[in-house]
């Protein structure tokens, strides 16, 4: 029996672990087997996290949070949760490697997974030119034409990073206006390596045995078809909250996020809390996830104190 189990890592999970650890609850963090640390481990320089005026690399920030959580007594488990049972006062968490854990309180901070285009050629050329991680794969496209699909902060951050490697970077966005921060848009427009295809979507990705060679792009207003030459296609069109393991035991909103009570992190099940991108379908920032992780830990601590 454990006081608290945190499912997921990232800024929300690690911050919750730091707070619960300092409160003496020694939480177990089921951080994930494939990508512990959340999406920041696949991010380059983070310029807007408070306390780092010169920026900080995403993996370095997550590593520091993990070590800080362990310093205060958190235990990190490199595994994935495949099943949960939230019925009753004692919650049960079953992991992929077969271990089962029981806890009085559970915090869900599983974040969100990258969203895919769902077009012909995407699956076939995944890992052969199609990528969802600019940090991981940008180097492989040195002096080659690159396309980034998306219009938010992630797309612009990836695009700017990829100009270090590609001969050119074309950003394709289905609308005329961008969702990204103005500073990122202005920086991209000033970059001589970058160009834009607006009001456009990717209909198909083409290639050969060596990888991606081109894309079929359609203008959503005129239906005009354009062929764009590219060897690298980086998809940055958003994310889907990771909730499949819940098995329908918690209410999910229309955006796929776990529903919580007002400004708290309390779910509809007593003793179960949620924080980070699995809850937040609007802001989805590292600092807001960390803040929510703090709130989840305080909500869980209050719940555990009342049990005592």
TrEMBL record:
Tagged with keyword Disulfide bond: yes
Cofactor note: Binds 1 FAD per subunit.
EC number: 1.8.1.9
Pfam families xref list: Pyr_redox_2
GO MF annotation, one: thioredoxin-disulfide reductase (NADPH) activity
Domain of life: Bacteria
GO cellular component, as recorded: cytoplasm
Gene3D superfamilies with a match to the protein in the record: FAD/NAD(P)-binding domain (3.50.50.60)
PROSITE patterns for the chain: PYRIDINE_REDOX_2
GO annotation terms (biological process): removal of superoxide radicals
Cofactor annotation: FAD
Catalytic activity: [thioredoxin]-dithiol + NADP(+) = [thioredoxin]-disulfide + NADPH + H(+)
Top EC class for this record: oxidoreductase
InterPro entries: FAD/NAD-bd_sf (IPR036188), FAD/NAD-binding_dom (IPR023753), Ferredoxin-NADP_redctase_2 (IPR050097), Pyr_nucl-diS_OxRdtase_2_AS (IPR008255), Thioredox_Rdtase (IPR005982)
Record's keyword terms, sorted: Disulfide bond, FAD, Flavoprotein, NADP, Oxidoreductase, Redox-active center
Family: Belongs to the class-II pyridine nucleotide-disulfide oxidoreductase family.
Subunit structure comment from the entry: Homodimer.
Protein name as catalogued: Thioredoxin reductase
Organism the protein comes from: Bifidobacterium bohemicum DSM 22767
